[in-house]
Amino acid sequence: MKKVTSGGGWPAIRYTFRKARQAGGVWKMWKAMRSRNACKTCALGMGGQQGGMVNELGRFPEVCKKSLQAMAADMQGAIQPEFWSTYSIEQLKKFSPRELEHCGRLTQPVLYERCQQYYRPIEWSEAMQRITDKLQKLSANESFWYFSGRSSNEAGFLLQLLARMYGTNHVNNCSYYCHQASGVGLASSVGSGTATLVLDDVEHADLVFLIGGNPSSNHPRLMSTLMHLRRRGGQVIVINPVVETGLVNFRVPSSPRSLLFGTKIASHYVQPHIGGDLALLTGIAKRIDEMGAQDEAFLREHCLGYDSWIEHIRQTSWTEIRRKSGVDQAEINSISEVYAAAKNVVFSWTMGITHHVHGVQNVQAIANLALMRGMVGRPHAGLMPIRGHSNVQGIGSMGVTPALKEAIFQRLQTELGVTLPTTPGYDTMACMEAAHAQTLKFGFCLGGNLYGSNPDSAFADEAMSRLENLVYLSTTLNTGHAHGLANETLILPVLARDEEPQPTTQESMFNFVRLSDGGPSRLPGPRSEVEVIADLGERLLGTNGPIDWSTMRDTGQIRQAIAKVVPGFEKLAEIGETKAEFQIDGRTFHQPTFPTETGRAALHLHDLPELQGDDHQLRLMTVRSEGQFNTVVYEDEDLYRGQDRRDIILMNPADLARFGLNHDQRISVISDTGRMDHVLARGFAEIRQGNALMYYPEANVLVPRGTDAQSKTPAFKGVVVWIDASPAA
Ligand SMILES: Nc1nc2c(c(=O)[nH]1)N[C@H]1C(S)=C(S)[C@@H](COP(=O)(O)OP(=O)(O)OC[C@H]3O[C@@H](n4cnc5c(=O)[nH]c(N)nc54)[C@H](O)[C@@H]3O)O[C@H]1N2
Ligand SMILES: Nc1nc2c(c(=O)[nH]1)N[C@H]1C(S)=C(S)[C@@H](COP(=O)(O)OP(=O)(O)OC[C@H]3O[C@@H](n4cnc5c(=O)[nH]c(N)nc54)[C@H](O)[C@@H]3O)O[C@H]1N2
Ligand SMILES: [Mo]
Q1: For residue 364, what is the domain's CATH number?
Q2: Cβ(446) to ligand 2 under 6 A?
């Protein structure tokens, strides 16, 4: 496949028209994209009351391929009733993620029972009764409740409330496999777990660090912000073991000049080894100190631990830093100089930082570096985790975490009068382990693909199939509906955000709350998530307790409850009437006063981890292609990396030679956790030697279950593998 030389551009536009045709025409797609609903894909956020394709600064048109893919998927036809008697579970297991997604929309509740080989459609009332009966028989701590990040604040709040009133804190969300390290790291540094700035700040920065992310594929609309910054003379330092085409040059479709000539994105491209960021960030801090370029006054006045931190940095040797990062001195010096000279600096990062056993330390090291020059706590600078799912941040804010924030815990009791469980709740991986140990028996998943997103797929399959019951609220089929099925597995079809009969709200990664109007349902059958949850609440907990569950079908009622309980969401009470979208108070820091006990930020000391692997091994990252959204694969191609298929391992041509392999030779890839056969080994000059790249979710058989001790996030980017090239492999 011919490799493109820039991201975005005409291929993205051509794709738009192709998707529009599939979805029933350009006009139909246009209307869907312009409706007043928050965008469904990433958490950068757009749409809402300003109408689709408008960002937080009111700029239009902001559009990306991802939102079109997601929209086209929701506009698919229904899975026909005979589908379920045609394809057995064994056959569904053979479907690729792409084939499952393209089966169509789920419109009927379907039930799988272990003794059967097929799912079978059942009535809604039967489905709801089965769930209720089962929950009434179990003790609450035998159940867990997993949430993905696409559902609304209302659905998120309501379901966690239901789980807690039922009696368990085993409530968690996909964040544990995503940005949890950012939340934990940021909270430990600046006292608050989300971005410290707003979009407008990024638009005024003169330097952006982009660490461990590929926004050209995964957050394409960030590219227009970066284009503006470069046009103003600003700089972008990319830190990534892979040279991602779209981060070198991107053609922003909404800008004619950029579309024709392309825009250079990275002004500096640094390629550490996988897992080398902590050493590199420490190196930059060390160099800034050598140059005397830190803001001592800020560090002493607004930070805790400066003396011991700087002493630790001084004690860390350059030899250790260079060896553990894989970056040479000249490069560290040169980016340090760029940082020292910049006035307004934004530090952004994604999964290349969080998907490591030292993910929290990575995030703390980024915060240290920003604090070192006073880049937190003022306008036009700050810390920016680039979040994943479109409402993953809102789901977290709503209390979808094993431990509730103290204020929410108190107010649920005082304001709503509910009694809350106090036994500790499990994080996501702990739930998988407990399912395997059969201490958990019942799983309820609000969207997502818990099986597919897990490390160690063989273990995940086994763990989930040991459950007695599994309930999915889903829009389309995914691998989790074929693998790891419990004794009794139910799939309940739900409406997408823009089909909801009532308005719902979402929160962007900039802490901005949007109101989505909803819209007409496209197909008969699916129900709104809120309706399903309220129905279950009524059956299980009744109408006479502190919450009258029969009234909770009304999203306005739920917003009243949220406004009373969740700090910063008071304005949610009126949003249905006023339509006034808002910035959550207390999360943006334009002054150097931090929500910690002392009002100061904390600096953290780190020992640098060794790079993984030996001479016979490769460090492996499992990442997304351009043609997928998480476990949902839309296309097999990875346009920007020039790949036409997914069953491949990309490594530097020098590594191919080192292992005596030919380009496209069939091999097996092995790790301590599992093996993948029939993989094509490919030379890929863009990846740093010694490192390799494979696609998630297929490569999850290789990923170990070990997690970061602080955030419980698996090391999806820190896998050690070796190659078996014997003919039998
Ligand atoms: N199109 C599309 N958009 C998406 C998604 C999607 O699947 N598809 N998913 C959404 C979600 S939930 C999320 S969380 C985000 C994910 O967005 P990203 O984090 O951008 O996604 P990944 O593909 O996991 O990416 C990782 C990048 O990290 C780099 N990397 C890997 N290991 C290291 C390392 O050790 N150090 C450094 N510095 N870099 C490293 C890889 O080379 C790659 O460029 O995107 C969101 N948006
Ligand atoms: N190896 C490896 N593993 C990873 C990662 C990695 O980089 N490498 N990334 C991790 C990350 S960052 C994340 S966030 C997780 C993703 O984990 P999840 O969020 O659990 O998985 P998704 O694939 O995003 O879930 C997709 C499914 O959600 C359902 N869905 C879509 N829209 C809606 C809706 O509006 N409502 C409801 N109820 N359902 C809906 C559809 O059925 C679809 O199949 O995976 C993690 N796993
Ligand atoms: Mo994510």
Answers
A1: 3.40.228.10
A2: yes
